[in-house]
Each structure stands twice: as C-alpha cells, then as structure tokens.
Request: fold
Amino acid sequence: MVSVGLLSIAVSLSVKCYQVVEENLKLQEEKILDRTTYTNDLSEIIFRFDAEVRKNKELVDKQVQLENELVKVRKKSS
Reply:
C-alpha cells in the first residue's frame, strides 16, 4: 500500500517536473524570438544609419568640391 502511494507521488512529481521543463522551454523559445526580432530591428537601424552617413559624406564631399571650384572662379575673375 505504501509502495503504491510512493509510486503515485513519484509519478505526480515527474509529471509536474515535465510540465515545468516544457514551460521553461517555451519561455526560452519566446525569448529567442524576441531577441531575434530585436537584433533584426537593430540591424535595420544600423543599415539605414550607415546609408544616411554615406549619403551625408557624399553631400559634404560635393559641397567641398563646389566650394573649391567657387574659390578657383573667384581667383580667375580677380
């Protein structure tokens, strides 16, 4: 009789442990998905920022080029 009671408790604990492990795995999967989404969002932000930096650098280079040409034109007309 005691053996049946102990076996019943052992089975109940095993089932409970399995449920806890299963829930833990589900939470870890959700965290991984959240991190992946977060990482993808950051990658997109960095990519766009990099594109803006390159665009601004091109504009600054063009501005410097035009300013240099203006200086040359002013020197020629003096």
Remarks:
- The two ends are 114 Å apart (CA to CA).
- Residues 21 and 27 are 10 Å apart (CA to CA).
- The mean pLDDT is 89.
